[in-house]
Structure formats: structure tokens, C-alpha cells
Amino acid sequence: MKQPESVESLDNRVTDTGPVWGLPGTVLWGLVIAAVFVFGQVFGMGLFIGLSQPGVDGSGFEQSMGDYQLHGIGISFGVYCALLFCMPVLLGAIKLKRGSSIKRYLGLRRFDLRALGYWFLIIFACLLAYDGLALLLGISIVPDFSIAIYESAEGSWILWLAIVLAAPLLEEMLFRGFLFSGIAASFPGPAGAIVTTSLLWAIIHVQYEYFWMLSIFIIGLALGMARYRTGSILLTFILHAAINLAAMVTTALAIS
Fold first, then answer.
1. Rounded CA separation 130/143 (Å)
2. What is the pTM of this model?
3. CB 201 within 8 A of CB 183
């Protein structure tokens, strides 16, 4: 029988990132990327409005920005632009650290398929338990936000790709990649990295009710543990994409 890995071997895997920014540098770069992230989302929404309402004036544009906050296609444009704008900044921040390796810094490493199955079952159990709690409390297992954006986009493939692929790609590279490596290599350590990145990941999902933000935090803890034990964000990206795919399918079934 294969012996379980020691804590020391796990820590070595996580910290085998080469040179990384320390905690202050990670925080500062994180704030820069967050600002670019917000700008990208606003730019994407503005691009969508410009394409869907050519010739709109300033006051009309401002009104449309408010009206389209829950429009699935507009949100998709925001996700794509955030990804497009953030990736060069994120990768540039890594390369500016002398001696760094993008592959090692972000945890772009292969993983055992058994690990994928193991963590998939854990996360599935977490989702199932939380949905059961929602039903006991009389809360719909499909958030109102999810229904609103799906109906407004009419189930468009543009929304599906944004939610299932683009958003998980950006979020995993930022949270379980860049931020995780910088925090884990600093005094908070891997445990601090898991909790901090999960909390920040939940906070950016302010469009959901608090009940579902707590669910996101819990799933973030599971993804953080998967990142810690495997050293791979390729695995967490697949898990994240599967979670979002399941959410989209559930939403589609709920409104059909």
C-alpha cells in the first residue's frame, strides 16, 4: 500500500516555486491585478453596450451600465476582457521577479488522475451537503443571480464559455496560482494561503447572497487543499470548471 505523504514532502512541493514575491510584494501586485480586473469587467460591459446600442450618448450609456448589470452577455464580455487584461499583468509580475519560472510559480504541473477523482468526490460531497442544507432552509439551490444572467443571455454559448472556462482559468491562476504561492512562501504558510485565497475568492462573488458566498468559501478551502496536496492548479482548474459546468446545467434545468 502506498504510504501517505508526509507534511514535510507536501510543504516542499508547495514551496518548490523558485523565487516568488514576498508577502508585501504579493499584496501589492494583487491589488494591481485586482484594479485591472475591475477595469476589464467595466470595459467589457461598455464594449457590449457599444456594440448592442451603437450611437448611445453619455447619459444613455450610464443608464445602460446600470440596466445591464445582470445581463449574461454583458457579464461574459466583462469576464473575457478581465482575462485578456489581467493575464499580461499577472505573468509580467512573475517575470519581473528575478529567477522566477511561470510554470513553477503558478503550479502548472501534472497530477495523478487518482488525485482528480479523489478531490472530485470531496468537492461533490461538499456541494451535495450544502444543497441539502439549502433545501432544509427553504432556499432555492439555484441563486437568483444565476437565473437572471442565464435568462438574459438565453443560454448563449458565449455565457457558457465565460462561466465554464474563462472565469475558472483567470481565477485559478490568480488565487490558487499567484496569490497562493506568494502567501504560502511567507509567514502565513500554506494554511494561511488556503484560508486567505478562499476568503478573497468568496469576496469577489458579491453578486451572490451571503448563503452562497459561504458555499464558495468552503469550496475554496477544498480547492486550496487540493492545490496544497498536489501542487497543481491544472487540477484545481479542472475541478473549478466542473463545478461551474454543473452550476450552469442546474440553472438550465431549473428554468426549462
1. 13
2. 0.91
3. no
Residue 253 has pLDDT above 90, yes or no: yes
d(CA 119, CA 231): 13
Residue 240 amino acid letter: H
pLDDT above 50 (res 239) = yes
Average pLDDT of the chain to the nearest whole number: 90
* Distance separating the N- and C-terminal Cα atoms of the chain: 48
- Return the C-alpha cell found at 251: 440553472
Distance (Å, rounded) from C-alpha 149 to C-alpha 73? 8
Assess whether pLDDT exceeds 60 at residue 252: yes
The Cα–Cα gap between 230 and 159 comes to 30
Instruction: For cell 446545467, name the residue.
Output: 249
Region class of 186: left (phi > 0), else alpha (psi between -120 and 50), else beta: beta
Provide the 10 A C-beta neighbour count for residue 89: 15
Q: In 3D, which of 63, 37, 40 has the Cα closest to residue 179? A: 37
**CA gap 256, 251 in Å, rounded:** 9
- Which three cell numbers, joined as nine digits, stand for 222? 477544498
Read off the C-alpha cell for 98.
528575478
Structure-block grid coordinates of residue 56: 448611445
User: Quick one: how far is CA 115 from the chain centroid?
Assistant: 20
pLDDT tens figures, 53-70: 776 666 666 666 666 678
- For the record, the C-alpha cell of 249 comes out as 446545467
